Amino acid sequence: MADASFKDVPELFEVELTESLVARTESLSTFRELGPPDLVHVLKSTGRSGQRDLGSYHYVSGVDASSSASLAAYINSLTYNIEDDSGWFSKGTSWKVKSGCYCCFNAFSRVDVRVDVKIPGGVQAYVVDLRGERHEATPEIWQETFLSAILRAILYSDDPTYWLEAYRKLDPITTPEGELRFLQAAEALFMKGWQVGSDPEIQVATVVSNHLTAAIMKYFGDSGRYQHAANLFEKILAKEPEVASLLARSYIGMNEEVKAVQIMASAIKQTPQSYTLLHVQCDFLRAKGKYEWALKLARQAVNCAPSEFVTWEKLTEIYIDLGQYENALLTLNSCPMFTYNGRDAHRNLNPARVHLPPKGAIVEILPERVKTEDDEADPALLRLPAPGLRGTWARAYSLLTRLVSQIGWDELLKTRSSVFVMEEEYRMQKAQAEGKHHSSASEKVIHEDGTVSSPRRGDSLQGQKADRADDDASTRGVVSPTQSAPDEEGQGAVNDTDSETLANADGLPTIRISTESAREQAAAAKEANGHGEPKENGIKESAGNALEKPVQAAENNQDGEGGQGPSQEPFSFSNKRLCERWLDNLFMVLYEDLRVWTIFRAEVAHFKTQHVAYRKTGLEWEILGDLGMRLHHKEEAKEAYQRCLDTPRYSYKPWSKLLDMYAEEGDIQRTLQVAVRVAAYQWGEYAEMTYPTQIARCFFKLGQIHGHAKISYTLLSMGLPEPVLKIMESYLQYGRVFKVEGYDF
């Protein structure tokens, strides 16, 4: 069956004919935003009776979806791509494409546009709605489909979290004329942009915060050609004043700061409640070092959009800039968190056979794609919870890691205990309350309504709660939403003492920051760090010790519950806040990261003093590199990624991370050496596009400083094989065609 396959197009063969089309039709109602990449299904036949037809499919983005003719042309191009193994002397069976179906999701009208192609024969275009019913395709539908396809191609181009097998990526825009058509379609449908959804950190998509505006800013921003985006926003500004925020960002990108300030000044009078406009002003002031001014604007943005995560995030960032860490932690605690919704994807089917042909000579430089011992790692590294964070949770965690990188773990814990109610404080308050109720059986309680009661040990729980309603009302009112929340870490599930049962029944929070396993891990961290080395990154033993203090205090209070400690000062909940459960969990996630990082750095220091080589597997170096990036230890992370490259492991990530680092440093030679490998990995995954990609973005960043000619000559001096050089030159060719800054010097 090998001769039924395409030469250089990936494909998945079906178990039952057209099962991929049926699955897509059934999944249409689950697509929430931009939809998945286009699906191309083909039927192949030998033309002989008794020979069963074969069905195969693959995914693609970047194909021109402006008309049925352009989609039919793509399917027609596949007919020339079938492998022909039969020689002139053999009587082998020759397979031909019998028919094809191209499916492209329209994210604006929430319908699937399909083109059926019969070979030989005609072309039929139709629309399938969410119920599976067919309709006629109108010109308006085609325009929306064309723009939807381009948005997917731009936004999915280099998204590391979105991966599909047999997914082919082509260039969505290859000529200035194609770019003009994109801009015209974007202008026509701009006011409908909110319908295609937005990034997961945005709760409500608006005219200026959605996938359409994100794609426009990414497409023109990655190449520094903001003037085209500015021209588009200038036209729309007359109809929609809120677009001023995007226009100002475009002018700042063009280094036209005076014009940007003028636009922001006039727009804020028209739309004073636009948080996106306030954020553009914030970023501009932060770039100029005016943090106090930016703080006022960030506070105003929170008042304008209190339910959006990004407004609280911006305020937290500015508090960190100003060194107001308590306010930063309180603001972070107030962030509204949303459920993460990933990109739309197809339903996974089990294919009868997978055909992934090698793509050109460039992939020959890659290591074998087989599992080796370098794909294994220590379970402690594999179990780190931080890499699993997505959306608002990942953004909140990055703020927390920025905080700890600036003030250290010890200081962060002190700040935390000064603004949030800690467990031992809660226990102390509880002990005082219990002491008041149980110190004397004859104690009379006079209530505001004049009634007198004498609480006894045997009173019912409900009765005790009613008696204490006045004392505890405000506290319980604050935490009532979390009263029945399940304990995500399995903490506090079983309470042995009466007082603990009472605490849970009252709805007061039991705030834990460490589990038994965490104590064992902390002990392990202390053992690993007990060699007398200097503190690494300010968190040598504190990661193990500091997390123990609150738990120990809670245990001490637990033992003495029922009696009031006379030396304790009276404590009030009024000057502190309750820490949100999700933020408490993020502290535990941060603890795990810091613990592993501290052990790693201590081991490195120990091995250096012993003059012994420090060995890890390729996957372990990669995980440690990611860990260093999360904790803002860039140099150590770069070293870990470089060590990862010494292992013969098939992995795209370390090359990709180093490419960004070298481009940021302006190192042309290393950037180009790494870029060749990144291109090989991309072509190996059938990403046959030049822009917008990570390599193009890095090349254009270097080109602004050194010029494209220097990059081109450096590529020539590397002595690359002709096919590889052609691929690397294609990124610079895009710069020449679209006149990216630096193309002419």
Overview in brief:
The protein has 745 residues and is α+β, with helices and mostly antiparallel strands. It has helices at residues 19-27, 68-78, 139-155, 176-188, 211-221, 226-237, 244-253, 257-270, 275-287, 291-304, 309-322, 325-333, 379-382, 391-419, 423-438, 461-467, 469-479, 498-506, 516-528, 542-545, 549-559, 581-609, 618-630, 634-645, 653-665, 668-684, 694-706, 708-717, 722-737, and strands at residues 11-13, 38-45, 54-61, 96-106, 111-118, 123-128, 134-135, 167-169, 353-355, 445-446, 452-453.
Question: Could you explain the architecture of this structure?
Answer:
By secondary structure, the protein is of the alpha+beta class. Helices cover 50% and strands 8% of the residues. It is built from 29 helices and 11 strands. It has helices at 19-27, 68-78, 139-155, 176-188, 211-221, 226-237, 244-253, 257-270, 275-287, 291-304, 309-322, 325-333, 379-382, 391-419, 423-438, 461-467, 469-479, 498-506, 516-528, 542-545, 549-559, 581-609, 618-630, 634-645, 653-665, 668-684, 694-706, 708-717, 722-737; strands spanning 11-13, 38-45, 54-61, 96-106, 111-118, 123-128, 134-135, 167-169, 353-355, 445-446, 452-453. Strands 1, 2, 3, 4, 5, 6, 7, 8 and 9 form a 9-stranded mixed beta sheet that branches. Strands 10-11 form a two-stranded antiparallel sheet. Strand 5 (111-118) and strand 6 (123-128) form a beta hairpin. Helix 6 (226-237) runs antiparallel to helix 7, helix 8 runs antiparallel to helix 9 and helix 27 packs across helix 28 (708-717). The longest helix has 29 residues, at 391-419. The two termini are 52 Å apart. The model is unreliable at 448-452 and 455-571 (pLDDT under 50).
